[in-house]
Amino acid sequence: MQEIAPKIFIETAYPGVTLGAINGSHGLILIDSPIRQEDARAWRSALLNLGGGVDRMLIILDGHYDRTVGVRNMDCTVVGHTRLLDIYRSRPVTFKAQGSETGAEWEQQSNLGSIRWASPEITFTDQLTIDWDDSPIVLQHRPGPSSAAIWVELVKEKTLFVGDLVTPGQPPFLASADLPLWIEQLNTLMGKNYKNYWIISGRGGLVAGEEVRKQLKFLEKAHNQIEALAAKKSRPEEAQLLANSLASSFSTPPEQKEVFRQRLRYGLYHYYVRRYWPEESAALEE
Fold first, then answer.
1. Which residues are paired to 207 by β-bridges?
2. pTM of this prediction?
3. Is 235 inside a domain boundary?
4. Which neighbouring-strand residues pair with 58?
5. What's the pLDDT score for residue 152?
């Protein structure tokens, strides 16, 4: 666990997403959860050492499976964007983890068993401020990576949790994305309002401005190539073929290369179908 600012901690040791913890006199505000049950137990145990108040609140930064399969294991009040409810409604009440299709981290884990979703008890549409101490915590709806994506901002501490907006060293998940909005949010992040902020990626911890610019460059490249295919009325299968060239944008460990290519193939296909082949998208949903 790393303390990046007074009473603000992050943890990158568990498979999946970067975890956050904000320690206040009223209690702990947690950001995202581990995928595996045993990691959730270890994380809860580590949090006991922080002291603070007795209450617990968990913020989900978006509806990705890596963020949501382990939420119930944290056993606390859950907060997220209102569109998370729609995402949960589109899933079976319970399902058994199996196979590898989307290139997500949860698919690489064994013994997850049957998963039951923990829907947020507190939701918001545009912005929500949590006043547990004298330092407000502001949750903002920032769609792009997902329709339910949010940022968590600590204004006084100049600290910002941005979820999958930036995924340093690995391809982003494109299936549920809105690339023009995503590019817009990255430009906002690089603007003067967030100068000198600590930026925490949901998949890699602290990130520098150079990594934000790399993410922007990658998404602009992907968007331009997809738009070119759409202009030619290409089939969705042709979007998948972009995966190999786009994967070369990342220095990938050998054991992760195929997983990351599959992540891109899956994401490109579903993004293209959803935006340019709505009839086929409806058939997929059925």
1. 199
2. 0.91
3. no
4. 30, 78
5. 97
Higher pLDDT, 17 or 254: 17
- Does residue 214 lie within any of the structural domains? no
Q: Residue 258 domain-assigned?
A: no
* Among candidate residues 71, 75, 69, the one with its CA nearest the CA of residue 31: 71
Nearest Cα to Cα of residue 202 among 12, 17, 7: 17
User: 101: buried, middle or exposed (CB in 10 Å: 19+, 13-18, 0-12)?
Assistant: exposed
Contact 105, 114 (CB under 8 A): no
Percentage of the chain exceeding pLDDT 90: 60
| Structural domain boundaries enclosing 69 | 2-208
Name, in order, each residue with C-beta under 8 angstroms of 73's C-beta and a sequence gap of 6 or more: 33, 34, 37, 40, 41
What's the mean pLDDT in 139-166? 96
Question: What are the residues whose beta carbons fall under 8 Å from the beta carbon of 47, sequence distance 6 or more?
Answer: 21, 28, 30
What is the number of residues in the chain? 286
Structural domain total, the chain: 1
- CATH number at 45 reads 3.60.15.10
**Is pLDDT of 185 > 50?**
yes
Structure tokens at 84: 């998370």
> Nearest 5°: phi and psi at 196?
70, 20
Q: What angle do CA 213, 218, 220 make, to 5 degrees?
A: 95
| 265 in a structural domain | no
Which strand (E) or helix (H) includes residue 279? helix 278-285
Tell which residue, 69, 101, 64, has the closest CA to residue 83: 64
Asked if residue 200 lies in contact with residue 18, where contact means CB atoms within 8 angstroms, the answer is yes
Structure tokens at 182: 């995503």
